[in-house]
Amino acid sequence: MTAAADNPAAAATAAGEQPVCRRLVGRTAVVTGAGSGIGLASALRLASEGARVVCADVDTDRGKAAAEQTGGLFVETDVTDEGQVEALYKAAYDTYGSVDIAFNNAGISPPDDDSILTTELDAWQRVQHVNLTSVYLCCRQAIPYMRRQGRGSIINTASFVAVLGAATSQISYTASKGGVLAMSRELGVQFAREGIRVNALCPGPVNTPLLQELFAKDPERAERRLVHVPVGRFAEAEEIAAAVAFLASDDASFVNATDFLVDGGIAGAYVTPQ
Ligand code: NAD
């Protein structure tokens, strides 16, 4: 696996050495799954651009640590629980007076979600709840605040597997991300004239601890995937966070209802370089 160390641009981003603009001063951002990976990198990036960040996670220790790092608020939230999601958005509004950015990002990818031939109903349903129903619940809470303000940016984390089939199947995960993508597009269209943009973020494989552990144990498994990535490496979480900050900001004022791919060219590739 090619690490960030071999890629100066990714390494500089990861080390926080990129010049950061201040596009989000005065904005309130709610980030779910803020305790780890893409959510944590994005919470930090949004805060560095001036946003007040509300960190939501089911993991109290990680969520609290994220809030400390961003100087924001931690709200313990299980995103599958309607009452907790309602309380999350209320806490954001009550504390900071607005809900301008909703990054609905929490998601799971458990090992018992695999080929359709071996994935049992309970695994299917668990993944649908955490990855898809949660996005419905979060959007349902965020949109009324944004309508009242006449402004808002919602970014829902889908995945490149929402637009590409994988023979290394995780059937419920893929279906859930397809649902996130279609729901985001529809909401983006429905609320466009009320100043609300909704985009589905579609990351390619990201170099998170989970992925590192999995592929360190099984290099063949990594190689099976890397061959399809034109740039020849996985993304760093900070590279995904940069896209989140863009979509959250007014720089993306005409970017709406998209499948926003940040995948190193995977979805556009037929034959990749050797
Ligand atoms: P991660 O496991 O590093 O972080 C996910 C966070 O979500 C964790 O802090 C976890 O505690 C939290 N979480 C899990 N269930 C929750 C729940 N019910 N309520 C609240 N919080 C909960 O994962 P990541 O790799 O950063 O992935 C973030 C998102 O990006 C997910 O939706 C994932 O499907 C998507 N994604 C990841 C990759 C990748 O390669 N890592 C690629 C494409 C899309």
UniProtKB/TrEMBL annotation:
Molecular function per GO: oxidoreductase activity
Organism domain of life: Bacteria
Pfam families in alphabetical order: adh_short_C2
Annotated signal peptide: none
Oxidoreductase among keywords: yes
InterPro entries: NAD(P)-bd_dom_sf, SDR_fam
UniProt entry tagged with the keyword rRNA-binding: no
Keyword set, alphabetical order: Oxidoreductase
Family note: Belongs to the short-chain dehydrogenases/reductases (SDR) family.
Alphabetized PANTHER family for the sequence: 3-OXOACYL-(ACYL-CARRIER-PROTEIN) REDUCTASE (AFU_ORTHOLOGUE AFUA_6G11210) (PTHR43180), SHORT-CHAIN DEHYDROGENASE_REDUCTASE FAMILY PROTEIN (PTHR43180:SF66)
Protein known as: 3-oxoacyl-ACP reductase
